[in-house]
């Protein structure tokens, strides 16, 4: 590309068309790329400076369009879209695959004893709490009390589900027992995500018009956002927790794993990782990141405020979180 980069490239939006599943999938394959967690603070700050400068109309000499988009995706991978603050490393979507493959693989390997269930469900819910807080929607902070309540409730729910199901499946086939961790994770997501984002349900999340002009806060939008995230998180976990049990059940009958039983955990982690590389971006792409809802679905007072100021407006937009 010759000459200076034009200033009309819309880097507020993803590079690919977000109205299609394929466009969203391309976007999230880039956002969840595990290589992004290896970027240094200097590289992150350089990307932030490039994006902020470009938004102010400042274009560094020699900057190409591909370099600008690369900077945008580095920026998006590490900085919160609403607050602009740098996100906790393990809470970033680029850390989802390496973190989840390790935790999930171990949950599915060490599921037979009560201490192992307690430990790995606790590790998983601690990680989920960090991810859910890091990827919340809006800019309203949670209090320490709210964080503590959410964390304890989600962890207790997950452990109770896992132990209860373990007790029920003791007299059934070992294959069915392998699905206990998935049931516990699904139940915990239904508890953890709403609790970690409870403030959004109380005070609402920012809603805007199509051009990003803030119109107010809506708890109804928060309900839709959190429901979509719960569904996508459960489906995200499904392939990595549903496919490996069949493979491991078959492998454990073979001579190799009988001779080298310590290989069970690494193989399980590898299988889960392979599934998550594809499941994470594809399930993030199920719903648009910039979600929308009809004005008539908002709270009555917010509807009245919008209709008074923007009588022609039919839909509002909001960041659903991840």
Tell me the strand percentage band.
Answer: 5-15%
For the largest beta-sheet, the strand count, sense and barrel status come to: 2 strands, antiparallel
- How would you spell out the order of helices and strands? HHHHHHHHHEEHHHEHE
What best-fitting shape do the alpha-carbon axes yield?
Answer: globular
The computed structural class is mainly alpha
DSSP helix fraction: 55-70%
What are the low-pLDDT stretches, counting only 5+ consecutive residues below 50? none
> What strand line-up does the widest sheet have?
1-2
Radius of gyration in whole Å, from Cα?
22 Å
Average pLDDT, rounded to a whole number, is: 82
Number of helices: 13
* Gap from first CA to last CA: 35 Å
Number of strands: 4
